[in-house]
Structure formats: structure tokens, C-alpha cells
Design brief:
704 residues, 3 domains, 7-stranded mixed sheet, single chain
């Protein structure tokens, strides 16, 4: 079937869908290799300490065991610049669960059995794993993740807060979150003739190769990374983690044999990052008319003692609402825990939970409707950078969302609306936002074949987000041909470089490179007057810079509405209806785009009601480290989720007019649910997740 030429905006089915539902799409662990061997890690059982003896004799006598790797015999790395990747190089233990050994065997069963036989003696040390807002060792990092300034200050917020007619001072907290991707972190590593080949589930093949080349002192050309399909990532597969390093060390120990490593779910809870817990104090001051005069957002969160990761949690507060006086601060506490990392909408998801909850509280304190209160405090320009927004349709999202949700006529009194069976019913609203990032480092090549196919080459990634389809649509649109004439190749370092999929910047960055390559190819084809040509014709291009980024602040916005029910006898919370309206530029594929926003909203619901890692301070590890006890939302927890997008034209963001949507949907969802819970019960829950115990004191529900 010939598909339409103008394919941007067409809701096409995913091109990789049939391969995935039939099981023929190969993920990292599934690539066929000859004579594989299997690796199973041994993890530290102390939170801090030093390995003083290794007893590997029993493991080495097991039939089928090829090697036991420890700090005493593992290959040496060339760079210690990234402490997280210093695997099996020293006897020091920085956190419980750290890799301290690994067994390589002919089968996965033998490797796992032998790993249990490896015994290590430790000299443990005192550990500190508990985050506290008043921790004596809290400090200000030099810079936040993403290059954001640690603190910001405008005007005199302390004086303005003291003199405000209406004031709010509240503290909100979010717990330790896991990515919980469906596909575990997995690697196949093979070292043959001074060339390392890796099959890895990664958000960026070129980024991973560059990291590993530095770590092992190799030329980048000596490493090939292949990753055509990734079974979910959410930021957890953006950075290099110890599991890949361990697999490479094992490959060095058995040259020529491909080493296969797939982490267990429990191992993932200590090895591949998480979203740091946060404690956030928000102070708002408003005049008698409900206009904000001061905003203060102070964040305390944890990082690992051996490596810093500082999440940019307060940054949304810098741009969301108008106030003459404002400040944000970030303070970190180094603890003896694994290294946190990026997780879907870093900073924005936890930061907007706190800010949008506070905005709800402030609206009530001012006697105003929460929707109208946000609209009244809409800034005309970016409050931080004093730039105009390329587009800012938050007000339209709020108005349209309120209309679709049936917000008009809502009784603001908490705890008065009931449903049969003892359920208290409430509704809530919150705003969403996410920056439009365009990251450097992407290039594309497009080749027109004599048979009329256009082969598009770029080392992009598909995390399950629809890149195979959407990037093909962008190429077809730019070339002016039906999309069935486009053959896309991604996920391989043998292809032109591409920045990693992160910050919802993939389509913006990769797409801009593809559009520029298409422009150049069309010019070449027109010059040769041959379509199709007698021989292949190709053109390449780097992603062009966008000068408009200096003139405008660029964001996507949205409005989240939630209906919840809280059982007055048990405290059980259900969210039967979520509705989101989003202004995210031109939607490349409305079908996959809707799926991304729906998935983000579902993840936000899970954040609000279910997810929390429970740390045992005695031993320094997460005790609910599997999907049986780390609760995430399932089908039974998700009711009606409505996703609507505005027809937003933004000519400044990129040639496609698109904005990232992979992270926008999660932002604000948790706050909308928390605000609805207050409306249902009169109980203001400021600490996530919202579980039944939050509603009871002395055996009775607190209402009103």
C-alpha cells in the first residue's frame, strides 16, 4: 500500500510492532552468538568496608566454571575518573550490593550456583544511609544535572514572604524510585582480535562507546555497540553502569567467547541507578488578590558518597509562575548508597509534585479556584531568563482540560462528595511542563538507491518509544516521498553518530539532522536529474544549530486533571479517571504520541499511589527489591486515561515544529492525584506515596 507523502501528523501503526508481538525483535540478551558463556555477579554484603580475603576454591572446582573474577585478578581499567565504573579494581566497598566478584561458566545455572560458593571476608566500617533534611553533612553541589545552576535568586524573597497577606510554608517528600523497565539490563560482550563487540540495551550506542573507550583506554573504533531494540529505559539506560563493565572484564578473561550477562530484578535495585529521594520545602506568598509576590523552593536530596549525582528538582519553579521575588536552592547529602541517576523527567517530576501541591494549597488559602489561581499567576515571559516563550499554551491547556473534565460547578469543599459503598470522591488539577532540548552530536546520512528506496542511517535509539516509525515519518516528509520508500537503520555505532535518547530530545535532535540531510540529498538528486538514479546517491549532514534558541525559552506544557475515590473505612485510594491536555508542538505520530503521554500519566499515577523503595538502615539496602514488593501500577489500578493534544504551531523549536513528549506526561500527574485526594478527604498528604495509613490517626479518618 502506498502511504501519503505528507506523513508527519499521520497516526501510523508502529513499524516494529509485528516483530515485537511475534517475538522476532531481538533485545540485547537475545542476539545469536556462537558458544556463549554466562556471567553471574557476586555482590557485597556490607554497606561500607573492605574485602580482606577471597575464597574462590569451591567455585573453581565446579564443572563448567571458567573463571572467577575478583579485584585480585580482573583486567585493569585505564581511567578512574568515573568512580561508579571502577569495578573489581580495589578491595574497597562503597555500598551494599556492589559487585565484588563474578563467575563465568558454560551455563547460566552453573554460574549462579558457583557464585553462591564464592566467599569473601570483609572488614566493615560504619555506614550512613538515612536522608534527613537537617543532615549535618548537607552541601551545595557546584552544578546540577543538566548544567543547571545550583541556586537561583531574584529580588528579596524573605522580606516579601514576611510581608505577604497570604503565606504557605509546607514540606513535601518523594521516595527512592526504581525505573522498573520490563527488559532487565543485559549485555553480550565479546573480545576478538582487539575488537570489542557489545550487544547492550542502551539509550545511546555512541555515548556508551565513548564512555567505555575512555574507561578501558581503547580507540573508539575498537568498540562496536549494537542496540536495535530496547525494552524500556526511562533514563536508567542512559549512563554506563557497572554491569556493562563487569561483562567486559569477563570477556577479557575468556577471549573469543561471547559473555552473556542479564541482571536479575533484585540486582537492578542496587546496580543501575534510581531517582533520588527528595525533601522539598516550598514557601509561597501572595497579596490579597491572590497574585504571588514570592516563591521559595528549597530541596534536600541524597547522592552516593563515592560519586555525585545532583537532580535538578527545583528548576521548574524558576519558570512556572509569575512572582517578583523568588529563590531556589539544592542541597545534597552524601550517603553510603548506590549512585542515583536520571529517571523520567528528572527534576521536573518530583519538583512539580511539590510545587503543584503547594499551588493547590495556596489557591485554597486565597479562596480561589485552583485552575483560575494558576491562570492568574501566568508569567508573560520566562521569569528566570527574561525571554519570551516560543509558545506557552498552559492557559489554553487548563481551560480546555477544565471543559473536557467537567470542572465547572465543582464544589471546593473537601469531603462532601460521596459515591455508593463508602467512597469519598474528589477532583484535582496540576500543571505539566518540560523543556524543549536539542542536544549536539547527531548526524545523518540518506542514500537514494537505484530501486527507489531511501536508506536513512543514524545511530539513534528506540526505547519502545516509536523511533522506528516517527523518524521514518520525518525522513519521508522531508524527502517528499511515501514512508514505505524509507528504510531506517538505527542502534549501531557503525552508523553516523547520534546523541543519546534523553531529555525528550531524540526527535528534535535526530530529526533535525535527518531533515538537513534530506534537504541536501534532494538538491543533489535534482542536480543530477535522476530519480531513481543509475547508481546510489547520498548526502550527509550534522544537526544544524538553531539560532532561535538564543531568543526564546522553549517548553511544552500541559494540564492534568484527576478524579479519585478514597474509601472512608479502609483508606484505599483509586483513581478511576485521569485527563491530560498537552501543548507539545506538532505531533509527529498521534498514535505513538498518545501512547507516550498515556504511559507517562500512568507512571505518574504509580508514583502517586504505589512506588517506594524501603531502605533497611541497619544494612543499607532496599528490602522490597523485586516487583512483588516494589509496587507499580498494573491494569487493575488504571481506570480511564484521556489524552488530548492541542494543535500548537511553534516555528522556532526545530524544522519539524515538534516538542518532546516522552517525559511531559508524568509531570504533574502525582500532584493532580494528591490534590484530588485532599478534595475527597480533607487530608493533605505531602509525602508520597499516598497509602491508606496516611488517612488515619487514632483509628479514625481525619476529615475536614
Amino acid at each position: 500500500m502506498t502511504l501519503p507523502v505528507r506523513v508527519i501528523g499521520t497516526p501510523l501503526d508502529r513499524f516494529d510492532g509485528p516483530a515485537k508481538v511475534t517475538g522476532t525483535a531481538r533485545y540485547a540478551f537475545e542476539h545469536p552468538v556462537d558458544r556463549p558463556v554466562y556471567l553471574f555477579p557476586v555482590q557485597a554484603t556490607v554497606a561500607v568496608g573492605r574485602v580482606v580475603a577471597v575464597h574462590a576454591e569451591a567455585a573453581l572446582t565446579e564443572p563448567g566454571v571458567l573463571a572467577v573474577l575478583t579485584h585480585e585478578n580482573a583486567a585493569r581499567i585505564a581511567s578512574f575518573d568515573d568512580p561508579e565504573l571502577v569495578v573489581l579494581q580495589t578491595p574497597e566497598v562503597a555500598y551494599r550490593g556492589q559487585f565484588v566478584a563474578g563467575v563465568v561458566a558454560e551455563t547460566s545455572e552453573v554460574a549462579r550456583c558457583a557464585a553462591d560458593l564464592v566467599q569473601l571476608d570483609y572488614r566493615p566500617g560504619p555506614h550512613d544511609v538515612v536522608l534527613d533534611a537537617d543532615h549535618p553533612d548537607r552541601y551545595a553541589p557546584e552544578v546540577m544535572n543538566g548544567g543547571f545552576a545550583t541556586d537561583s535568586m531574584l529580588g528579596d524573597p524573605e522580606t516579601a514572604l514576611a510581608g505577604a497577606a497570604v503565606r504557605l510554608d509546607a514540606t513535601y517528600s518523594t521516595p527512592w524510585y526504581q525505573h522498573a523497565q520490563l527488559e532487565p539490563h543485559a549485555t553480550i560482550a565479546q573480545w576478538v582480535d582487539d575488537r570489542l563487540t557489545l550487544h547492550v540495551g542502551t539509550q545511546g550506542v555512541h555515548r556508551l562507546r565513548q564512555s567505555l573507550a575512555t574507561l578501558f583506554g581503547l580507540d573508539e573504533e575498537q568498540i562496536r555497540v549494537v542496540s536495535p531494540h530496547v525494552g524500556g529505559a526511562f533514563g536508567g539506560k542512559l549512563h554506563t553502569h557497572p554491569d556493562v563493565v563487569l561483562a567486559i572484564l569477563a570477556a577479557f578473561a575468556v577471549p573469543g567467547r561471547p559473555v552473556k550477562l542479564a541482571l536479575s530484578r533484585q540486582q537492578m535495585f542496587s546496580q543501575v541507578g534510581y531517582r533520588t529521594p527528595s525533601i522539598q520545602r516550598i514557601r509561597l506568598g501572595a497579596g490579597p488578590d491572590g497574585r504571588l509576590v514570592a516563591v521559595s523552593h528549597a530541596v534536600v536530596q541524597q547522592t552516593a558518597r563515592h560519586k555525585e549525582f545532583a537532580e535538578q528538582t527545583a528548576t521548574p519553579t524558576r519558570v512556572m509562575y509569575a512572582a517578583e521575588h523568588r529563590s531556589t536552592t539544592h542541597r545534597m547529602v552524601r550517603l553510603d548508597v548506590p549512585v542515583p541517576t536520571i529517571m523520567r523527567a528528572p527534576g521536573k517530576a518530583p519538583g512539580m509534585y511539590a510545587l503543584e501541591s503547594a499551588m493547590d494549597e495556596m489557591a485554597i488559602a486565597c479562596g480561589q479556584d485552583p485552575v483560575e489561581f494558576r491562570i492568574a499567576n501566568e508569567p508573560p515571559r520566562d521569569p528566570e531568563l527574561d525571554k519570551p516563550f516560543s509558545t506557552r499554551n498552559l492557559v489554553t491547556c487548563l481551560r480546555e482540560g477544565a471543559r473536557r473534565f467537567g470542572w465547572a460547578g465543582r464544589d471546593p469543599t473537601p469531603g462532601v462528595r460521596r459515591a455508593a459503598g463508602g467512597w469519598l470522591v474528589g477532583t484535582g488539577v496540576a500543571a505539566s511542563m518540560y523543556p524543549v532540548y536539542q542536544l549536539p552530536g547527531s548526524a545523518a546520512t540518506i542514500r537514494l538507491e537505484p530501486d527507489g528506496r531511501y536508506v536513512v542511517l543514524i545511530g539513534a535509539a528506540d526505547l519502545g518509544t516509536g523511533t522506528w516509525t516517527s523518524l521514518s515519518q520525518i525522513a519521508a516528509d522531508a524527502l517528499g516521498v511515501p514512508v514505505d520508500r524509507v528504510e531506517l537503520r538505527i542502534g549501531d555505532t557503525d552508523l553516523p553518530p547520534a546523541m543519546a535518547a534523553g531529555g525528550s530530545s531524540g526527535m528534535t535532535s535526530w530529526g533535525s539532522a535527518v531533515v538537513e540531510a534530506a534537504r541536501r540529498l534532494r538538491a543533489r538528486v535534482a542536480g543530477e536529474h535522476a530519480d531513481p538514479p543509475m547508481h546510489p546517491i547520498e548526502a550527509s549532514a550534522d544537526m544544524p544549530e538553531n539560532p532561535e534558541r538564543e531568543r526564546f525559552s522553549m517548553y511544552a506544557f500541559g494540564a492534568q486533571f484527576a478524579e479519585v475515590r478514597v474509601h472512608e473505612a479502609t483508606g484505599e485510594v483509586r483513581a478511576p479517571r485521569l485527563l491530560g491536555v498537552f501543548a507539545a508542538g506538532r505531533i509527529i505520530n498521534p498514535k505513538t504520541g498518545r501512547s507516550q503521554l498515556l504511559g507517562g500519566m500512568t507512571m505518574g499515577l504509580s508514583m502517586a499511589l504505589h512506588e517506594r523503595c524501603v531502605l533497611d538502615p541497619r544494612f543499607g539496602h532496599v528490602v522490597n527489591h523485586d516487583l512483588a514488593e516494589y509496587h507499580i501500577a498494573t491494569n487493575a489500578d488504571v481506570g480511564c486515561v484521556e489524552v488530548h493534544t492541542l494543535a500548537e504551531e511553534d516555528p522556532y523549536v526545530n524544522p519539524m515544529g515538534s516538542k518532546g513528549i516522552g517525559e511531559l506526561g508524568i509531570v504533574g500527574t502525582a500532584a493532580a492525584i494528591a490534590n484530588a485526594v485532599y478534595h475527597a478527604t480533607g487530608v493533605r498528604v505531602r509525602d508520597l506515596p499516598i497509602t491508606p495509613d496516611r488517612f488515619f490517626a487514632d483509628g479514625a479518618m481525619i476529615r475536614g
